[in-house]
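User: tokens in, sequence out, please.
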């Protein structure tokens, strides 16, 4: 009889232990998910002198923002837009032009994708500097990785209702061709008359 009673007590203790362990497993999984979520947000980097020598940071100014071909195209477009309600801005992050709906599933993922990508040029309407057209550059040596990134950019811009065009850096475009491209994209530009 004592043995049966001991077995019942052991069974009750094992059952309580089992229930306790099962209750802890979801909590542990939740902590793991929370930990992963926190890692995605990124850690705060301490830039005080304790971590690095803040008085001697390894940064320098770039010599040029645009390559020679990009600069030549920028100057041509800027000349075309000179007497219009538009201005052109090079190298704008997508996050400055697009927004992500706060209700979107995986909101942080979508924000991260547009934070890390840069648009070649953006035409803005004055005086509010409203983005009205994105210009992509196309070169003969475009790599597969850039092509995939450009596909994402194109889909994101289309979803936002922001038109875009692609201009080749390998062919010299005159101002009349640029006017035609910009008009086809919906901009209201007068014919450029060179002086």
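Assistant: Sequence out:
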């Amino acid at each position: 009889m004592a043995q049966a009673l001991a077995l019942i007590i052991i069974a009750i203790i094992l059952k309580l232990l089992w229930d306790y362990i099962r209750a802890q497993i979801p909590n542990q999984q939740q902590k793991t998910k929370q930990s992963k979520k926190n890692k995605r947000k990124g850690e705060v980097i301490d830039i005080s002198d304790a971590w690095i020598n803040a008085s001697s940071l390894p940064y320098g100014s770039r010599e040029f923002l645009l390559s020679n071909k990009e600069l030549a195209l920028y100057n041509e477009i800027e000349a075309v837009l000179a007497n219009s309600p538009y201005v052109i801005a090079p190298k704008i992050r997508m996050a400055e032009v697009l927004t992500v709906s706060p209700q979107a599933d995986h909101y942080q993922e979508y924000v991260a994708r547009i934070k890390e990508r840069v648009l070649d040029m953006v035409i803005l309407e004055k005086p509010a500097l409203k983005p009205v057209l994105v210009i992509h550059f196309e070169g003969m040596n475009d790599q597969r990785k850039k092509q995939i990134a450009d596909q994402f950019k194109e889909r994101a811009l289309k979803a936002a209702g922001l038109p875009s065009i692609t201009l080749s850096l390998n062919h010299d475009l005159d101002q009349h061709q640029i006017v035609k491209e910009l008009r086809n994209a919906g901009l209201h530009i007068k014919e450029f008359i060179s002086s």
